[in-house]
Amino acid sequence: MEEAGLLNQTSSVTYIRLRGLSVNQKVQMAVFAMFLTFYVLTLIGNILIVITIIYDHRLHTPMYFFLSNLSFIDICHSTVTVPKMLADTWSEEKLISFDACVTQMFFLHLFACTEIFLLTIMAYDRYVAICKPLQYMTLMNWKVCVLLAVALWTGGTIHSIALTSLTIKLPYCGPDEIDNFFCDVPQVIKLACTDTHIIEILIVSNSGLISVVCFVVLVVSYAVILVSLRQQLSEGRRKALSTCAAHLTVVTLFLGHCIFIYSRPSTSLPEDKVVAVFFTAVTPLLNPIIYTLRNEDMKNALNKLMGRLEGKGKK
């Protein structure tokens, strides 16, 4: 009887209203143009990186294998939220079904957590390459890389299932409005008609702890790398510093959001929407820019690919 009552309560909220970024029509049009531009550039940039890495055999190394995974995740991560947000710009109601909301939350946390684990593994890859170069191919052989990739995707899936399960078990009987442009766990659980303090603690201990621990591990890893670089030749040091700087930029932008949102109770702050914009639209776009403009190998491979495509076009 209790389970039946819970299901009835949950099903009483079938649609959720998203407030979006603004109610001003002119602002919405500007936001639409900006997000559409960001999304198109994100798709083009990350797809180009994946194609270039597949095409150029010189890039068939562990670092670029993980970089192609990062580009794929960024494409998926942006696609989870941005297309819906673009469609809602032209809608007054901005409704999303409860099931679609749960699905959006699941994939949002799947790709976000997987990216956190991936950035941590990429830091380990750079640590081995710079600090233990003679053992690099042994420690980071293809079998190890594939196993690490499977592990990070599995970890992201488990994390997302855990958070989504906690969320959908709560009773929802109103209100039905979220002050954001996508569904996320902290905002959705505030709609539950029950006490959610325990769930909030679990979210902080899960998402928040993962973000903070991975950030600390990454900072320590790069600190060790920087100390090691002091003993290397200038040319090798310059190239390694460039790569590490790119990684650190991505890590700071991405994990900064996760720590800000998930390491505190579910309270709304004015900065939440700004941080959410960077998380869903800006960071996935910055990744290809950061990794290509600061990476000579990627730039050379891209130029080679563009030259080959232009040659085929003239024929």
From TrEMBL:
Keyword list, A-Z: Cell membrane, G-protein coupled receptor, Membrane, Olfaction, Receptor, Sensory transduction, Transducer, Transmembrane, Transmembrane helix
Subcellular localization, as worded in the UniProt entry: Cell membrane; Membrane
UniProt-listed InterPro entries: GPCR_Rhodpsn (IPR000276), GPCR_Rhodpsn_7TM (IPR017452), Olfact_rcpt (IPR000725), Olfactory_Receptors (IPR050427)
Transmembrane intervals: 29-55, 64-86, 106-124, 144-162, 209-229, 241-262, 274-293
Entry GO CC: plasma membrane
GO molecular function, one term: olfactory receptor activity
PROSITE patterns: G_PROTEIN_RECEP_F1_1, G_PROTEIN_RECEP_F1_2
Record-annotated G-protein coupled receptors family 1 profile domain positions: 45-291
Family: Belongs to the G-protein coupled receptor 1 family.
Function: Putative odorant or sperm cell receptor.
Protein name per the record: Olfactory receptor
